[in-house]
Amino acid sequence: MTKKRRIPRLLQLVLVVLGIYLGFVLTFDVILGQVIPKSLLTMYMFFVIAGVLMVFTFTEESAQELIGPIKALVEDPSKKMVRNVVFVIVPLLAGVYTYASLMPSFEAPVELRTIHPAPPSSVKAFGKRFDLATLENPYRKFEKEDPDKFHKLVKQGGEIYIQNCQYCHGDRLDGKGPYAAGLNPTPLNFQDVGTIAQLQESFVFWRIATGGPGLPAEAAPWISSMPIWQDFLSEDEIWKVILFLYEYTGRQPRSWEHE
Amino acid sequence: MRQINLLKLLVIAASLLIVSPTFAKPGDVDRGKGIYDKRCTWCHGDEGDGTGAAEERLNPPPRDFTSGNYKIKTTAFDEMIPNDEDVFRMIRDGMPGTAMPGWSSLLSEQDMWDLVAYVKVFAEFEEAPEQQVDYGTPVASSPESIAQGKELFEDGDRCVECHGKTGKGSAIKRLKGDVSERTWPRNLTKPWTFRGSNDPKDIFTRISTGIAGTEMPSFADPKSKKMLSIKERWHVANYVASLAKTQKVVNAENTVIKADMLEGDLLPDSPDDERWEQTIPTTFLLVPQIIGEERFFKPSNDTITVRALYNDKAIAMLMEWDDRTKSIPGDERAEKIADKPIQEDGVAVQLPVEIPKKMQKPYFGMGDASRPVNIWHWKSGTKDTAETVAMINSRGFQDIEARDAAEVGLQAKGSYKDGTWRVVMVRPLTTADPENDLQFVEGRFIPVAFAAWDGSNNSEKGSRHTMTTWYWLLLKPSTGAMPIIMALVIAGLFAGALLWWARSAAGGRKPQADSKEGTA
Hints:
The complex is a heterodimer of chains A (about 260) and B (about 525). Chain A contains nine helices and two strands.
């Protein structure tokens, strides 16, 4: 066996744990773009350390190998210098950790919510019921039948959008309107492939007509600043604005037929 | 002769390099029109005259390109035509503090050069501009330069006339833009609202060119009594850049107002109390109320800074916000600056009647049927009446109940100075009516939201105001000596255990060492 040049087991363990930690932080912060809450990270890391320890101490031999250096440190007279240093640092670290964990944390509570909740089968708006499974955009058909008329409808939708929606969703439709930074949750980015391209027009109609307060509880309706548009716009106007959303971003609504 | 010509050429080439570090690429007018008709007409209008659909709801309004006014340019003050790079920069980066976004995330570089070419057609700008801003030898920022800049800024009210003594734009005059829109002098302590940046070079340029289409004049114009030399303009620019150093900036991560405990002491009931200086300010963006009821699109207030202190009896909150005008209905000077009819200034704090146990809060817009909110509403008063504080319980816009603020023990006191309102509100931690009043508890995260009214701007009143959504208020529990004692105990235990281990190891070392030798 090539025992000589191997990294000591203890160092291996530390490296593995550190690697996983960095992996978590990287995936969440950089790739997924959302900072992982501290409490969650602590919990994950607890399981990771427990798991790694189990693997590393699976056999008697590997356990010995792991503990060896620690034992040597305490027992080997030639390591007196290192020992003294460790004996000062370890209690100090324990003290600092205790202090830090006893000082109350002032991090805001984490609130998890669904952004695209499952739609109800029918919704109430404009004083009537709409069956979302059969509801269609009455103007969509002109896309093929009468492109000129369709173009005009899109233009009208754009005007409604710029008068009512750009403050939040932005004139680039990227969710970065002039006031977006002051709102939490932030307004939806329609350019993103994960938003309107994934939705049927009937769903979008429901979301616009009833706004934030029309969301089910799992989507935290009490914090969404999306206005209730049935209070300001007509049914027609909402359908037109929907045409504009798809046209401007070059996306197609999801339709029942394709499924 | 030939040599001289060559020299001339070299000089011209070199000066071109200095003036325009990014060379303009020729844009294609026709392609530009195609992109314009899809992206820009909504605001700037089909004819480029600024009469797009959003005109009525934007201040500043979308630019009328036929006017030929460009706010951010590097050509001399008496030169109407901007450099292509100037126009390109505004299209690429946008104009902060306005609805004009930057387009680099959606359009290619060539697209944007094409737009430059097309947009210039509206004002029939065909020739290249001739006169450029002369930067001379830049003066680096230093305490001396800043001090000189401050003097020039204030001298003869040069800049103070419009921007106010503190640079916050506390207006002495009512200003208008070219399309007779209300313009507010820039708040120079808020660099994120600058159309150009607040880099000294940018500020130098603005002071030199003035801002076309607004009353901001050029200070390079020899005809102006307030003209500044190049050197002086650099000093002023350095001073203006230094105004941005403030604690009161928005930090998106910071959503919690932390109230410190004041043991035993009386709480500050005045905004001028020195103890506020030791508290941590938390600043939030204010957005116009464009969500329900009568909507409001043209705000002037844009941030609010909050601090809080508490003791065993009460909590005090200090709200500070920059407001260029002290709006006092009935006061002649205030009325002159204000949009008519003038209203009182105001600020409101919104809190849930009950601290949510789980995630669910009342609706951020004045609560909802099952979760009411408390609203504390301070108003600045008129010429004949004093400031007031009202208390409201509401379950949504429609369901509002007036309460008696005095009965609850709610007090408020405001003061206005140099473009900033500071208002303190104090309320006992608990009240006799827990069904209807929030009972403050230490250590719990309490949702809190704010609203502000500028009575001189578009008659802000009622639902016409600026606001925040929910943030958090935390009464920081006083931990006392507990953490430090526990830390010492734990550290001691660790040290003891280690020593004990070493001792016992040393005690049995001999036989162990033998066995080790044996195995080695």
